[in-house]
Amino acid sequence: MSQLPIKSPLLGALQQAWTQRSPRERQLLRLCAFALLLAALWSLAVAPAWRTWQKAPAQQALLDAQSQSMRQLQAQAKIWQASRPISRSESIQWLETHLSELGPDAKISLQADQVTLSLNAAPAEDLAHWLRMAREWAMAMPVQAQLQRGPSPSTPATADKQAKPSISPTDNTALLRGTLVLRLP
């Protein structure tokens, strides 16, 4: 089978332009074409791979941290699955026993399978710790919270109830007031 040479007008014009160039100009054009080929190869193939290779250690560290966090969550879930089921009365007893950690004004009221916790000037850090322990030991899960930042212990009470409480810059204790609804097991 023989191939018929197909000549297009553009190809003919290019061949004619090439033959009209001097050997030095041809060599320079070949060098320019080679440089363009290298630039295209770099930008399309090598540069993206190079950037990926440079970012790999940071991404690996991030994935390792996420993996470690997931392993910790998995271990915690296994502990919760292995723990004995707690009765509703044991859960209520734990909540009432540890209520004093939230201050003298903290109160609990029972409503079906939920407990409403009322707070007035409870330290935020103590509440966070209490909630974590309530979730772990009493299996009580928070379902609703309506909390506001209250006045600091060093703020004097004023007759003007419209005045907004302010936290002094030296006192880092944030006090919370409001209600929190917990679901019992």
Output the keywords.
185 residues; alpha+beta; Gyrase A, domain 2; 4-stranded antiparallel β-sheet; 4 strands; 52% helix; 18% strand
Number of strands: 4
Number of helices: 4
Stretches where pLDDT falls below 50 for ≥5 residues? Answer: 155-170
Secondary structure: helix percent: 40-55%
Order of strands across the biggest sheet? 1-2-4-3
Total domain units: 2
* Secondary-structure class: alpha+beta
Strand content: 15-25%
Largest sheet, described in full? 4 strands, antiparallel
Encode the helix/strand succession as letters.
Answer: HHHEEHEE
Q: What's the average pLDDT?
A: 83
In the CATH hierarchy, the architecture of the largest domain is 2-Layer Sandwich
- What best-fitting shape do the alpha-carbon axes yield? rod-shaped
Distance between the termini: 85 Å
CATH topology of the largest domain, by name, is Gyrase A, domain 2
Structure description:
By secondary structure, the chain is an alpha+beta fold. It has helices spanning 9-20, 23-82, 88-97, 124-137; strands at 107-111, 114-123, 141-149, 175-183. It contains four helices and four strands; from the N terminus they run αααββαββ. The chain folds into two domains: 17-79; 88-151 and 174-183, 2-Layer Sandwich (Gyrase A, domain 2). The model is unreliable at 155-170 (pLDDT under 50).
